[in-house]
Amino acid sequence: MTEIQPTRTPLVRRVLMLVAILATLTSIYQIFNLGFYAGFSMFGVQYIYLLLTMLLPVVFLAIPARPGERTGRVPWYDWGLAVMSLGCCAFFTINSIHAVNQGWEFAAPEHVVWMSYLMWALTLEATRRCGGWAIFVVVLLMSAFPLYASILPDSMAAVSTPINYVAIYHALSAESILGIPAQAFGKLVIGFLLFGTALQRTGGGKFFIDLAFSLLGKVRGGPAKVSIFSSGLMGSMSGSVITNVLSTGPLSIPAMRKVGFTKTYAAGVETCASTGGVLMPPVMGAAAFIMATFLEIPYGQIALAAAIPSVLYFFGLFVQIDFYAARNQLKGLEEAELPGFVETFKAGWHYLFVFALLVFMLLYLNREAAAPFYATALLIALNQIRAHSRWNLADLKDFVEISGLRLAELLGLMAGIGMIMGGLAITGLSGTIATDLLYMAGGDPLVLLLMGALTSFILGIGMPITAAYIFLAIALAPALVDAGLSPLPVHMFILYWGMLSFITPPVAVGAFTAAKVAGSQPMKTGFMSMHLGSIIYFIPFFFVLEPALLLQGSGLEIFKAVLSALIGIFLVAGGLQGYLPKLGSLSRSGILQWPVRTLFILGGLLIAMPHNPLIKISEATLLTGALACIVAATLLSLVRRRPCPAAG
């Protein structure tokens, strides 16, 4: 997310504060159904149009056409774009009910067609400013796809659509600019974005880092374990890998270096922890909110389902760090260098209380839309009671201003991403892609999953994870569901694999950011991140083939699935790091070191492997994995018992 820049003019800053207040009040009015008491209720399309009217103009005022080009004054053309977007969005807001009654989506008057062209163009430019050139090109090509669909190869071809119809569909249909991304923004994202911003601005990040240091700082490899704990919680708040790395990295990476971790290893740990944080409930990235809207299930159900995969990922990362520290005899920090647990807890216990309220409202009361507003209000109230962290007027303005910028930036991106869905919906290809993919895979779910993993990863390189997720939720998810897999695990699979580009070369933007903080080589850090986070490449296959890992199944099924996954990940981590408790360093097995480590890795994967009849994996796999590990341990024992040659 873009942060507030001191070069912004006072007028733009006031505009940001004004739209933040207006958008928040509008969201509260709609989510809490206050229209029932006021005598006026907004339809869904009116609500989204009104948010666009408030926030889209701000994109052109607050985010320059080229990064860093402004010196404080907003250029005349940005003011022009802001005024045009205000007028255009206000036009559609005022006429939204009339448009539905008159069927403008299918046959609009000429002046409405021209306004639709303007809406299309303004949304594209807002998407470019908010998301960059890569997502702009994707949205441009996909939104214009109906214009050239007939000239594509037969497998992708469709009947071309006149440009005027495409324009009004994008501007008026509930399947494009007003589609699922914007709807998720209006229903869920606003509240959680305000909560995450308030948590950061009240000092929540510092509290979680200090708490992690007080609990884990003095154990072996302590600072690296602190990074897992603190970055996981911070990533859950921010929803951004890059923001997370830049927030916690300057504290955790130097601490890791102090106890003996290399620059590359420290940066790799921070990258993996920050990436996992975005997938960690209760507050996940924007794609998770869109998933809830897509699947038409409560967001709390998404957050609950994400709990076990998130625990498995952080467990794998934690034991790898522990094994690495044990093998290299790395200590923790001295107790005198660490904050005290009691003092830290006293200073920030209210953050845990607020999180408890949020989880209670999400999972028990099923009030996922209202929960973040209550949590934010409680957090700010408790913060103002405590003298050491109390906001003054400048702090409050800063919070409102940053919230306004982030709301505008995210809605500008969501509106553009919605046009990806719109381009496919106009041509009808969104309903036929699944059939084509099933045919290409020969109906084999495992082949489809491998195709999906590769496609998710490639799209994750050039697109924001939200855009990549939406595209594949339309194109790939139906094919996997038709092949016999459950919808929620399928959508989680796509989300997880789209995140992997943050830790995987050649892009690995999360790793490259951490490398700048650590002063390490970017590509080397990328490969280290890939090595440390390797378990995340397998976890999506585990839960998509074993829905019990997403809490879908009986208590016994969930227990067996989690236990086998934990044992398998433990053994895989030992093989990767060359150390296992009781066995010690595996490097002491001489020339058999790599055969032994490979057997532990393969054995662990087979033990953790789901027992899914769709891919013909049975209980025998578990026995095979156990046998591989027994063979590895036996080889290790035989090598170590071999007598050493006598000294000459």
UniProtKB/TrEMBL annotation:
A molecular function (GO) term: transmembrane transporter activity
Location relative to the cell: Cell inner membrane
Topological type in the membrane: Multi-pass membrane protein
Highest taxon in the source lineage: Bacteria
GO cellular component terms, semicolon-separated: plasma membrane
PANTHER family per record: BLL3936 PROTEIN (PTHR43849)
Name this polypeptide is given: TRAP transporter 4TM/12TM fusion protein
Native source species: Halomonas cerina
